[in-house]
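Sanity check

After download, print the first record. It should look like this:
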Amino acid sequence: MDSPPENAGKGLKPTISVYTEYLSNRISSYFPAASYSNFLSRISNFYRGSSGTSKRRRRITSLPLPFPSSAESSTVVCEASRTVGVLEDIMECIFLNMHYIQKNLEYWQSKAQGSNAKRAYFMICERGPYAFFNGTTQLLSDCVGEGCGMQHTYCLASSYISERINFLSSLRYHLATFLAQIYMKVDKVGEELVKDPEKSLSSLLVDMNDLFLKLEASIGHFHAVRQQSSSVDESYSFPLIFEKLPEVNQEGSQWTDCETRDAINLIYQNVDRLNTYLAAIVTIHRKPRRVTRYWIPYTCGIVGISICSLWLLRHSSLVGSSDIDNWIREAKESTVSFWNDHVEQPLISIRDDLFYTFRKRQKGAMEPEEVQLTADSLHRMLQAFTEQTKGEKAPPNATDQEMLEIVMMRYEKELMHPIQNLFSGELSRALLIQVQKLKLDIEEAMLELDQILRANEINFAILAALPAFFLSLIVIMLVRAWFKQDKKAEGRGRVARIQRRLLIVEVERKIMQLESYKEQGQEKDAQCMLGLALYYLDRLYCAVEGHARATGEWIILRQDIIDLAKPDLQTAHKLRITSRMERVYDCLLPLPKTQ
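Expected structure tokens:
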């Protein structure tokens, strides 16, 4: 008895799509007259259609179709706009599905390159709780019974990963071949569209139908492939069957508008079936979801949050405790104090120092007027002492230093008889003059110190605001890193530039492999390499457009990418283009290393 898929779906819509197909087949086995099938198909198409619409909305740009660049081509595109729309939708469908396959394939390849211990850890701990308990039980039983439990786990992990790698690689191979065949067909028909649009459209639609049938023959059998020892629990209950154009349409030389419309609708149905089929089979082989891979840390986090919640509950007012209220009040007071001491007051001080430093000052420890009074008093004392000592009037241009020398000379003489001159001489007067000079020196020093402190008030205010500044800077950096998410090729940082340059490397590799397969006569493999090169060029096209438009390089860079996609262009010329792209365009240059 079949079982419903357990890991199906990337989100709600793919899951509903897969389960709808499963329920439809299960019910049809009991009720042959399936009048309900239209209802179920509408539900499935509704979810698949909305999902496809959201994908198309996200794809703003993509690699353009290889139509001729002559002046007449614009007229052709206008006349054949419906067919061009079909081709663009087919290309977009293949690009999106190949990107989804590539992401999952890269994940499994990274797992395959890990050690045996990492692969065993993945098998036991990164596939969900059910796999954890089953894997642990099997490991313990093997260790107890045969003694080679870890070796069995290593082999099981290698088989599990290699099976998914082989499946996704094979699926990518067929899709890349299909993409290359479509691109080569459009490149070949482009010139014919200029000459005879009406006839070329009908032949192009017939060719598209034939290519879909070839794709059906290539991957349509995957629904029946189920190895006996396969690690995939689900089988695909619905095969890939495309609609076929009627024979009368294929033989007609010229179609009516109704026939063309029917053919376009048929191709759209095939595109929808292809999307549904790929969503189902890739879902089963996709990488585990993030919540599945990290269920152990998430579980520990939930347990930790639960314990913290219980602890907070014990200290809350719900059980009569006022601890949380006290903590909130203390945190509020600390925040207000930090804001006042390190944000508000320093900013106010800086503002005042910037606008009122030289206009409004509070009275300091020493003012210049007081120092000037002391200096004038000392000058008069020195002048009077000089005139009395010499018995003549002091010169009007005599400096304080000159008169102080006279005072010191008289002071030295008076010290010869200190006791006698202290009472009857000029010794006491000379001492008082020196005290006045000392007072003047102290006042001048205090005035200079006060000026230094006033001049550095703004520096002290800035130092007080530094903690808040650094805290704000850290918050801004964290918010910027959160919103930027500079991990993909569309970003602006060093990692994004590396990703874009790696895309060019992949394009070069596929071009060289394409030439090698052509020389060996392996046409299928060559078409696959061309399809993969187109896929990487599409990713590069979408990644560099915004940056190249900003620098004015987009027109030339776009033409280089289109030239690389041309199937008939010589390999040497393509390699010269990739070399020039890595050296010339700003959005593809590596950032200089910081010293």
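If your output differs, re-run the checksum step. Summary of this record's structure: The longest helix spans residues 149-195.
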